[in-house]
């Protein structure tokens, strides 16, 4: 959850992807103890329902001056997270270049070396959609797809048809070992009469031995809260938010869901890793581990847990979290140990005079599952921002602007220059929505205005720049971070060349630390002139600049 206190914004570059909880302008200025009292899950669920009914008529007549929808109602910030520090690891590069600079990260998370030529940036929703369809059709061993939900329109049905085509071919003997595994969120995937479950049910019924559909259910939605909070609002309690799409040894890491707007006019980011078997194996195992602790969809549309697994809302909450954490971290720790041994062996071979391969790019998968007590991404991100000192430029982008207190301190502290790109109200996915949801874009603008006011108060306008993405008839959902990513040109476009200078870090993050399961890759590159573009948006767009002439102090 994120927090905001009158003139002091507590936002997070852990950008949230969903409607959060609701508070009024009065509550924003209330003491922390009052907000902590008000924010209990049960009271929040009931409160949002009452407010929606109370203000719906008023909001139709005019904008509400009382209700300002801060998307993420927060509790008090927890104690600062420990920042990874290793002996002799200062973030300064030595003769080993990038490897030394990020060696501290490899000591805590798996580190995969891949050729930069195998990493490609998809630049549009249409390209993302058609790439997935083509890869599904040609998959021979596995299709693994993790998303918040699968939509119910004709484009989504075409995607399901591609899976059916691949499974049909497998049964004809072309590739009999093909397995299809889908991981979605339970609450979002079960919303409405026609939903993600009903879209996948025919496939599950026809190919039950080759098909698995797992529905993650947060352990925080239970008891009376689960009974009282209605659909859609229950998604604010917690969701499965990993977006990974895997086809044999090819992998797409994205923030895009499997829904029509993400295939047409909702700009996101999409990193394709081709023929990267070890990375693909890790992601397949990790998604599988999350699937193991999730509810399993049955052929009659019921759900059940795997044998021996703790139930997420019927079982003890602490027992579920501990069991799930152990199960998931076993995958992470096993991969980390395996990669550590492989890297040690590679260094020995190089010291003996053997030539290294073409694996010039590092991939560090970072896992964030705070409801389960897994906070690796938070810790690594804090360290990365801490190490970004004067002379560096950090680029952050998100469709939803809401930094945490820790990241706010790092951004506003003396250090790197920051270029922040967020969605204008017109391209926010909730723009024009009915009822209380229609206030969400204004709430994010309020958060951004408070943040920029703080920037101005500290006289940091030359160091911290805030931009807005605007494109007619489109929405903006991309999230990313890096110390060298595309420059933002006022009113022109945002782009990334195919090859950039060495020693760069790129990554993407999309989570609310109390609510979501997240997996993000952090990619680093040792040498120049590879095809790794990292996080990229190749767009024709308008970028508004927050400055003296626009939404200024």
TrEMBL record:
Biological process terms in GO annotation: cardiolipin biosynthetic process
Catalysed reactions, semicolon-separated: a CDP-1,2-diacyl-sn-glycerol + sn-glycerol 3-phosphate = a 1,2-diacyl-sn-glycero-3-phospho-(1'-sn-glycero-3'-phosphate) + CMP + H(+)
InterPro entries according to UniProt: PGS1, PLipase_D/transphosphatidylase
Keyword DNA-binding: no
Domain PLD phosphodiesterase span(s) in chain numbering: 236-262
Associated pathway: Phospholipid metabolism; phosphatidylglycerol biosynthesis; phosphatidylglycerol from CDP-diacylglycerol: step 1/2
Enzyme class, UniProt record, top EC level: transferase
GO CC entries: mitochondrion
EC number: 2.7.8.5
Coiled-coil annotated spans: none
Functional summary from the UniProt entry: Functions in the biosynthesis of the anionic phospholipids phosphatidylglycerol and cardiolipin.
Entry protein name: CDP-diacylglycerol--glycerol-3-phosphate 3-phosphatidyltransferase
């Amino acid at each position: 959850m994120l927090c905001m206190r009158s003139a002091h914004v507590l936002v997070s570059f852990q950008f949230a992807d969903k409607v959060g909880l609701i508070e009024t302008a009065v509550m924003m200025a209330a003491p922390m103890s009052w907000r902590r009292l008000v924010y209990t899950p049960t009271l929040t669920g009931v409160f949002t329902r009452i407010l929606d009914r109370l203000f719906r008529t008023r909001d139709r007549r005019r904008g509400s001056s009382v209700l300002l929808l801060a998307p993420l109602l927060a509790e008090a910030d927890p104690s600062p997270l420990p920042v990874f520090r290793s002996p002799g690891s200062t973030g300064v590069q030595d003769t080993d270049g990038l490897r030394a600079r990020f060696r501290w990260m490899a000591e805590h998370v798996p580190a995969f070396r891949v050729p930069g030529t195998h990493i490609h940036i998809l630049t549009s929703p249409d390209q993302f959609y058609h790439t997935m369809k083509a890869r599904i059709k040609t998959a021979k061993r596995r299709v693994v797809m993790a998303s918040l939900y699968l939509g119910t329109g004709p484009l989504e049905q075409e995607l399901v048809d591609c899976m059916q085509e691949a499974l049909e071919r497998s049964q004809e003997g072309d590739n009999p070992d093909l397995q299809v595994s889908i991981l979605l969120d339970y609450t979002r995937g079960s919303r409405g009469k026609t939903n993600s479950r009903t879209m996948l049910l025919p496939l599950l019924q026809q190919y039950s031995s080759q098909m698995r559909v797992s529905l993650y259910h947060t352990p925080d939605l239970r008891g009376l809260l689960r009974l009282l909070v209605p659909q859609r609002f229950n998604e604010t309690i917690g969701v499965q938010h990993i977006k990974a799409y895997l086809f044999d040894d090819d992998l797409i890491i994205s923030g895009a869901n499997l829904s029509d707007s993400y295939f047409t006019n909702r700009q996101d980011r999409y990193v394709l890793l081709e023929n990267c078997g070890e990375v693909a194996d890790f992601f397949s195992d990790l998604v599988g581990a999350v699937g193991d602790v999730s509810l399993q969809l049955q052929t009659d549309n019921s759900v059940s847990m795997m044998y021996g697994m703790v139930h997420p809302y019927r079982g003890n909450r602490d027992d579920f979290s501990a069991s799930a954490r152990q199960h998931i971290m076993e995958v992470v720790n096993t991969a980390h140990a395996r990669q550590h041994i492989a890297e040690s062996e590679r260094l020995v071979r190089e010291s003996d005079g053997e030539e290294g391969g073409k694996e010039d790019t590092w991939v560090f998968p970072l896992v964030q599952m705070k409801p389960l007590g897994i906070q690796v991404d938070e810790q690594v991100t804090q360290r990365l921002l801490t190490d970004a000192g004067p002379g560096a430029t950090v680029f952050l982008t998100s469709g939803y602007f809401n930094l945490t207190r820790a990241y706010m301190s790092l951004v506003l502290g003396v250090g790197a220059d920051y270029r922040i790109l967020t969605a204008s109200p017109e391209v926010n996915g909730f723009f024009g929505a009915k009822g209380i949801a229609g206030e969400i874009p204004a709430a994010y603008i309020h958060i951004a205005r408070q943040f920029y006011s703080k920037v101005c108060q500290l006289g940091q306008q030359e160091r911290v720049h805030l931009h807005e993405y605007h494109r007619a008839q489109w929405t903006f959902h991309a999230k990313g971070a890096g110390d060298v990513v595309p420059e933002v040109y006022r009113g022109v476009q945002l782009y990334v060349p195919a090859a950039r200078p060495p020693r760069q870090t790129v990554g993407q993050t999309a989570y609310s630390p109390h609510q979501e399961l997240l997996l993000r890759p952090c990619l680093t590159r040792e040498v120049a002139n590879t095809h790794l573009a990292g996080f990229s948006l190749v767009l024709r767009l308008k970028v508004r600049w927050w400055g003296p002439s626009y939404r200024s102090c």
